[in-house]
Amino acid sequence: MALGKRKKEDDEDLSEEARIDLGDFVTLMTAEGTPLEPEVQENKFYVRGIGQILEMNPDTGERLELVEYQIGSAD
């Protein structure tokens, strides 16, 4: 994954370019954690009209990527 320019939206959300096997996307990135495991953080990347395309643990490098999507209505 290549990360590009960041644009600060607020303290925890950033506009970020993300690269996955399906292509390059401009995303909204959120950094998430829980009070039960404050040392564990996950970065999630969302694309308008698609949803979440990537989840990544910045400490371990573990990634979950979207592998398929279809634009349009499901009839």
Features:
6 strands; 6-stranded antiparallel sheet; elongated; 75 residues; mainly beta
Can you give a write-up of this model?
The protein is mainly β. It has one domain. The chain is 0% helix and 56% strand. The chain has no helices and six strands. The chain has strands spanning 7-8, 13-20, 23-34, 37-47, 51-56, 63-65. A six-stranded antiparallel sheet has the order 1-2-3-4-5-6, with no helix packed on it. The radius of gyration is 13 Å and the shape is elongated.
Distance between the termini: 33 Å
Biggest sheet, in brief?
Answer: 6 strands, antiparallel
Please tally the helical runs, counting DSSP H or I stretches of 4 or more residues: 0
Strand adjacency order, main sheet: 1-2-3-4-5-6
The averaged pLDDT comes out at 82
Please tally the β strands and state the result. 6
The structure class reads mainly beta
Helical content band: under 10%
Percent strand:
over 45%
| SSE succession | EEEEEE
Uncertain residue segments: 4-11
Overall geometry: elongated
List the domain count as a whole number.
Answer: 1
What is the CA-atom radius of gyration, in angstroms? 13 Å
